[in-house]
């Protein structure tokens, strides 16, 4: 059964494995069990006190990156995260074990409980919103598809890596021509890949997109005082603090990520910035997509980057845009004062908001983050894709291990009427 108590369809994977064996051979390699066989003996069942003792010991013990000890520490953190709001005795026992009975909400002892809460990725919530099982497979089980350079070739992921590095190096060191930078990066990133006619075609398209982007940026620079200031800038690592959100029920939520680019300028004594997120795949920010972010929290990258720029990097964001590279087009959120500062700025693809509306957008996004975190910590791993168009070969690498029948539902995961 799934997390909602509904019967799952039979596993396609298990069915394919059975086909590898003859009926007699299958009997020799399989064991038939009843549900009761899965229930452990009474003497092997942990009591709540045993569980609390395990958590208290391993959270209080010095952390060592050493195989079994590391796994026990990780397990103790995971158990704590799942039980901390439902088992007040766990908190009391942990306080006693740490010898600080009056430590309050525990948040003050960060050096002791440094890793007690998960460090989420900015892109993680998008996967959870699309399908809890996708999130479970990627971030909890950490499943990875087997990759072969010979078979995969110049796939979209590798194309994206090349594009990101080329743009980072070009804007960091502008005296080099974009073509020379591209050739250097492409040669290094495709070492071991057979370059045929299709790969050469992709290479030419990538270089053309980059050349057009640089030219488009030159036109933007003539209209706006902003210039590239942060390139591939991480938060939550490399000495930059994570984005922190506090909640009475869920505790402290820490988020890390990497912003492709922030164009900055000093205006009226204030450091302001425009966030840019490169997208080599097609599709910008439409009004419909913006509404889905606000109402459903389907993709929270831009609002998270808005918060991180201000709270982690000390930059006052005046907008956040997706920068589609094929062809180069910007689309996203801009504060209305940008239009007043730069009246000649192209309006296509831009959604202008007053400052109070941007703050409301961020507030709604925080609510979606809390909802997603609550779902993650509650162990939701149901196979319930929001958009079935993403349940296709090449779009979801876990298609072979989930039990989802795409043809039984509509586009957004709504069951079809019989």
Low-confidence regions: 98-117, 410-418
- The gross shape turns out to be globular
Mean pLDDT: 79
Structure annotation, total helices? 15
**C-alpha-based Rg, rounded:** 25 Å
Largest sheet: 8 strands, mixed
Structural class: alpha/beta
Euclidean distance between termini CA atoms: 22 Å
SSE order, one letter for each helix or strand: HHHHHEHHHHHHEEEEHHEEHEH
Residue share in β-strands: 15-25%
- Count of DSSP E strands? 8
The level of helicity is: 40-55%
What is the fold's blueprint, element by element?
Blueprint: H1 12-18, H2 23-29, H3 48-60, H4 67-83, H5 88-97, E1 119-121, H6 124-130, H7 132-140, H8 149-152, H9 156-172, H10 178-189, H11 197-223, E2 227-235, E3 243-247, E4 251-267, E5 270-279, H12 287-296, H13 301-311, E6 316-325, E7 328-335, H14 336-341, E8 350-353, H15 355-377
Parallel strand pairs: 1-4, 5-6, 7-8
Antiparallel strand pairs: 2-4, 3-4, 4-5, 6-7
What does this structure look like?
- It is a single chain.
- By secondary structure, this protein is of the alpha/beta class.
- It has 15 helices and eight strands.
- Strands 1, 2, 3, 4, 5, 6, 7 and 8 form an eight-stranded mixed beta sheet that branches.
- A hairpin with a 2-residue loop joins strand 4 and strand 5.
- It is globular and about 75 Å long.
- The relative contact order is 0.11.
């Amino acid at each position: 059964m799934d997390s909602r108590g509904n019967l799952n369809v039979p596993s396609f994977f298990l069915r394919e494995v059975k086909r590898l064996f003859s009926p007699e051979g299958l009997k020799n390699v399989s064991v038939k069990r009843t549900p009761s066989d899965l229930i452990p003996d009474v003497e092997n069942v942990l009591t709540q006190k045993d569980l609390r003792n395990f958590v208290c010991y391993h959270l209080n013990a010095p952390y060592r990156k050493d195989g079994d000890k590391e796994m026990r520490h990780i397990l103790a953190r995971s158990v704590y995260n799942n039980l901390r709001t439902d088992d007040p005795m766990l908190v009391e026992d942990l306080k006693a074990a740490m010898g600080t009975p009056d430590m309050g909400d525990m948040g003050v002892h960060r050096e002791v409980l440094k890793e007690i809460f998960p460090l989420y990725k900015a892109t993680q919530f998008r996967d959870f919103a699309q399908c809890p099982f996708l999130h479970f497979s990627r971030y909890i089980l950490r499943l990875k598809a087997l990759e072969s350079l010979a078979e995969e070739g110049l796939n979209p992921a590798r194309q994206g890596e090349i594009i990101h590095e080329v743009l980072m190096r070009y804007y960091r060191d502008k005296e080099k021509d974009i073509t020379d930078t591209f050739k250097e990066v492409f040669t290094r990133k495709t070492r071991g890949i057979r370059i045929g006619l299709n790969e050469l075609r992709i290479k030419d398209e990538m270089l053309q997109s980059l050349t057009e982007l640089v030219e488009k940026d030159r036109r933007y620079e003539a209209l706006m005082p902003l210039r590239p200031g942060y390139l591939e800038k991480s938060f939550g690592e490399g000495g930059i603090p994570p984005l922190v959100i506090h909640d009475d029920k869920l505790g402290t939520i820490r988020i890390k990520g990497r912003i492709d680019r922030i164009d900055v300028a000093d205006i009226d004594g204030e450091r302001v910035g425009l966030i840019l997120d490169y997208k080599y795949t097609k599709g910008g920010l439409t009004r419909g997509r913006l509404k889905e972010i606000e109402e459903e929290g389907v993709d929270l990258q831009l609002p998270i980057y808005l918060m991180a720029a201000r709270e982690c990097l000390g930059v006052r964001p005046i907008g956040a845009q997706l920068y589609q590279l094929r062809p180069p087009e910007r689309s996203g959120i801009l504060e209305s004062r940008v239009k007043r500062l730069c009246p000649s700025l192209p309006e296509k693809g831009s959604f202008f908001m007053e400052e109070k509306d941007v703050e409301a957008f961020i507030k709604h996004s925080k609510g979606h983050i809390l909802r997603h975190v609550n779902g993650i910590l509650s162990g939701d791993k149901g196979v319930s894709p929001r958009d079935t168009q993403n349940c296709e070969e090449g779009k979801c690498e876990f298609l072979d291990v989930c039990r989802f029948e795409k043809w039984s539902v509509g586009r957004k995961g709504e069951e079809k009427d019989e």
